[in-house]
Specification:
By secondary structure, the chain is an alpha/beta fold. It is built from five helices and eleven strands. Helix 1 packs parallel to helix 4 (185-194) and helix 2 (133-146) packs across helix 5. The protein binds hypoxanthine (HPA).
């Protein structure tokens, strides 16, 4: 079964045939909300709204461990993350869909591993490729089938939030090699790897990052909302094609 973690702008899926909702308690506390189990294009799927159904959890307050643990607990083996980002270079323009291939983690103070109890042996995971290559490929194939253009590859910079970045911070991220900036891929991607779940992401470029684009002095939240509401239909379309194509 695959899981979808929906971000800002994707708190429900209207192409999801809901079978039931399930409240899951975990050793790490409560997930962002109940899980929605159902079917898309005949495939079993579990959906979770990352920020909660009322968008109540800011990126640094999300219980990533509980979310990932709960998805595994109900039988998910792969996770597709949907998350909005800011685009740093012109190519990553508002409205673009991006399948990132790398991450740089700038977050701090988040509970970012399952292995920290006194009784847990220290465990390191390989994280050379933070997004599972085979799952990325299937997503890209699904997007092609759906006729939705996607950008194959981006370095995702994960910032702490909840504020957006300064223009100088974006300059620094660009010097580091980043292409898009968001606040939620970490520790989510690493936790999925720790539990042996495949993980890939569809990023929706909601805005040009700070100091970029036409309005370089300010980011408009109205524009972000407009872009997201126009683009999420395309994301749903890709997810439906992903489900329909199977493995
Ligand atoms: N920065 C960080 N996260 C984001 C942005 C941004 O500009 N846009 C959407 N998520």
């Amino acid at each position: 079964m695959f899981a979808i973690i929906g971000g800002t702008g994707l708190t429900s899926l209207n192409n999801l045939e809901i079978v039931h909702r399930q409240v899951v308690r975990t050793p790490y506390g409560d997930p962002s909300g109940p899980l929605t189990l159902g079917r898309i294009a005949g495939q079993d799927v579990v959906f979770l709204a990352r920020h909660g159904y009322g968008h109540t959890y800011a990126p640094h307050r999300i219980n990533y461990r509980a979310n990932v643990w709960a998805l595994k607990h109900v039988g998910a083996s792969e996770v597709i993350s949907v998350a909005s980002v800011g685009g740093i270079q012109e190519r990553y323009a508002p409205g673009a869909l991006v399948i990132p291939h790398q991450i740089i983690d700038y977050t701090w103070g988040r509970a970012s591993t399952f292995f920290e109890g006194e009784e847990d042996p220290v465990t390191h995971i390989d994280f050379t490729l933070p997004f599972t290559p085979a799952l990325r490929e299937r997503l890209i194939r699904a997007a092609r089938r759906a006729g939705e253009p996607v950008i194959d590859g981006a370095v995702y910079a994960c910032t702490q939030g909840p504020r957006l970045e300064t223009a100088a911070e974006i300059d620094r991220l660009e010097r580091d090699g980043a292409n898009v900036v968001g606040m939620t891929a970490m520790p989510e991607a690493a936790l999925a790897r720790e539990l042996g779940l495949a993980y890939a992401a569809i990023n929706v470029v909601a805005n040009y990052a700070a100091g970029r684009g036409a309005d370089a002095n300010e980011i408009s939240f109205t524009e972000i909302e407009e872009t997201l509401s126009e683009t999420m239909a395309r994301v749903r379309h890709v997810l439906e094609a992903f489900a329909a194509q199977g493995e």
